[in-house]
Amino acid sequence: MMYAQNAIMVNEFRGHSWKHVSTNANMSLGVEVLESLGYFSGSHWYWIGVGALLGTVILLNSCCVLALTYLNPLGKPQAVLPENENEISTENNENMRKVVLPLEPHSITFLWLIRIRKHIWVLMH
Predict the structure, then answer these.
(1) Which of 11, 34, 55, 77 has the fewest CB atoms found within 10 Å of its own CB?
(2) Smallest Cα–Cα separation from 6: which of 19, 29, 37, 21?
(3) Exposed/middle/buried for residue 57 (C-beta within 10 Å: 0-12, 13-18, 19+)
């Protein structure tokens, strides 16, 4: 994340708005700000940051693919089957959008997503 922040800072402070040179220094105002804040001020740090972010994305996605390919699931899969065939046809015809998952929300993020889903559902209907 440090590479990303440094790339954003270099991109911003090396821009046209920060090219003004102060009277008591021989470097632009943007470079002075970068050095005073402790960031690397070279233009090449933008591309180093972009490369580091792309490398991180590729590495983490590869790790996820390998984990999903070679690791076994934590538990056995469970499905809820209807008792008779009439329930299948009536459920499919009446409520195709409803999906009931046997999950309990255990995090604030999940609860937030449920609230957003409810608001979207209310807006759509």
Answers:
(1) 77
(2) 37
(3) exposed
